[in-house]
Amino acid sequence: MRKVLPGIAAFAFAAGSASAADIAARPYTKAPPIAQVYNWTGFYIGGNAGYGWSQVKHEDLVPGFGGFWTSGTVSPLGPTQTIKPEGAVYGGQIGYNWQSANWVFGLEGQFNGADLKRTDTSIFFTVTDRLSAKIDSFATVTGRVGYAFNNWLPYIKGGYAGANLKTTNFDIFGTHLDNSAWRSGYVVGAGLEYGFAGNWSVGVEYNYLDFGSKSFTGRNLTAIGGTFGAENFSDNLRISTITGRINYRFGGPVVARY
């Protein structure tokens, strides 16, 4: 019996060693990479700057009068003078985005200063007869809808627009009529935004603002202090802008997707 037990133990050890040698080592596998998905949800604030151009159709509504006859009009002898102010635009925006799957919905308010201005002179009275128009500020409140391709976001927008338009016309009698008013209308636009460096994003945006026509009346004063008569005009205003934008969003920049 004493000789049998050691023999059994030796046999078991040898068999176990052979079995272990036959088993291949477990291969090493790396953990799958974690995809980083950009998240557009959150409040944001930013700035913008660019270029704007506009069209003001300034119509003389008094029968028998022919406008200001400047070279900017296709038909210079008609009652409507078209003047096209242009220049720099600059300002800021604040808004909120909410992302559901790839769709991004947002609400944004924007206020801009502007230096859109132009003065045209008469083709007949180049020294005295002229018309000037200037837009010095505008604002929008819009809804936005976009479709996110990770950190790229193309979108469209639309809503309320307001702008401050000032027109001044001078004539050969030394009179002038100024009108400055806040105009209300609508805006539609589109843009492309790119998210980078965590919560920052940059983009480019085009907007078209339409304010329709609005009439106004006034009484001119002559150079000698008398009255020349009542004036009645209508201004139709349209503005286009293209701007570069930069935003900082308050919220998580990315989420993990396994």
From TrEMBL:
Any one annotated GO CC term: cell outer membrane
Keyword vocabulary terms for this entry: Cell outer membrane, Membrane, Signal
Location(s) in or outside the cell: Cell outer membrane
Range of residues in the leader sequence: 1-20
Gene3D superfamilies: 2.40.160.20
Pfam families per UniProt: OMP_b-brl
Domain of life: Bacteria
Domain Outer membrane protein beta-barrel: 11-250
Homology family: Belongs to the Omp25/RopB family.
Database matches in PANTHER family: BLL7405 PROTEIN
Protein name according to UniProt: Porin family protein
Organism of this sequence: Afipia massiliensis
Taxonomy of the source species: Bacteria, Pseudomonadati, Pseudomonadota, Alphaproteobacteria, Hyphomicrobiales
